[in-house]
């Protein structure tokens, strides 16, 4: 990474995402905060997974770009809210002041609210997809973003501070907080296209693996990364006394678990041919990234 596919699709997505954000009707300062919180770089992993999965399953790029934009709005909203003093209380995100520091807490809350609601409005208007597929996507993504997924995972994360939790509890937390939206990103691309049950099932397990691998890598980087690489201060999990894969397994075994999950994910898709290569490359990217 980055491969030619990665570079091309990232550029294509950024243009589509900017266009989608510009359509959001909001008061001037709220719109400024919204753009500040979304057009600030980032890995764009979830959109790239949606595009790659859609490509594998024969979806139209225009449709997967729209779905990917909606999912990235949800991801951005979650980061704005996670950074708030009542949550993780972070001052920097991607090397810039967090939204509540650059603006204020009320504006940050409303920015997140605006992004979340705009995402579902945007999904409902992908008129080249059938009403049935749009409903499937809204059900899939809302479930992943809500209390059964990302929101529930964030609650479990906050409630785990200052106490040691089991490895099983940690995995449950991360499959919800991080893994659920990553999984929805992949399955959304499959829904937009046309695929058989066997491929869909493989994508589902692949998604479970890389979603957890992503969080293990985050735990590793919180110990091994630098502020320049991460765009925020490392060691925040340690300061907040959170249980992590590092605290429960140690660094070496955490790296081993990361490699195991990645290799299993790649093996699952190896029989699907050349069109699966972007998803395989993205699994490698999660494993090797430095931020």
Automatic annotation (TrEMBL):
Cofactor(s) needed: Mg(2+)
Cellular component aspect of the GO annotation: cytoplasm
Presence of keyword Coiled coil: no
Keywords: Isoprene biosynthesis, Magnesium, Metal-binding, Transferase
Record GO terms (molecular function): metal ion binding; prenyltransferase activity
Gene3D superfamilies: Farnesyl Diphosphate Synthase
Family per similarity comment: Belongs to the FPP/GGPP synthase family.
UniProt-recorded name of the protein: Polyprenyl synthetase family protein
Lineage, opening ranks: Bacteria, Pseudomonadati, Pseudomonadota, Gammaproteobacteria, Cardiobacteriales
